[in-house]
Specification:
By secondary structure, the protein is mostly helical. Helices cover 80% and strands 0% of the residues. It has one domain. The chain has 3 helices and no strands. It is rod-shaped.
């Protein structure tokens, strides 16, 4: 009786270990974790470069907007001091 139950437990343990081994082979969690860590480190190290690029784009678009507003103001008949005429192009 005890021997049968021990054999059953041992067989169940071996089945569990076999399923665990196959799961680890199939999903490879260590490789996934290492790839995730490497990607995180790359992102962390390139954050400053990405920030500089974003600032450059922002400054470029701000400059383009200021140039556009200046051109509209120069070509407009609207005097900013009158207040009665509205600039429709703006």
């Amino acid at each position: 009786m005890i021997q049968e139950s021990l054999e059953l437990y041992f067989r169940r343990l071996l089945d569990f270990l076999l399923y665990t081994k196959n799961y680890i082979i199939r999903t490879n969690p260590i490789k996934t974790l290492s790839e995730s860590v490497v990607e995180s480190i790359k992102d962390f190290l390139t954050v400053k470069k990405k920030l500089k690029m974003a600032q450059y784009r922002l400054n470029y678009h701000r400059h383009q907007l200021q140039k556009m507003e200046q051109l509209i103001a120069e070509n407009s008949d609207h005097s900013f001091l009158k207040g009665s005429n509205l600039d429709q192009r703006r």
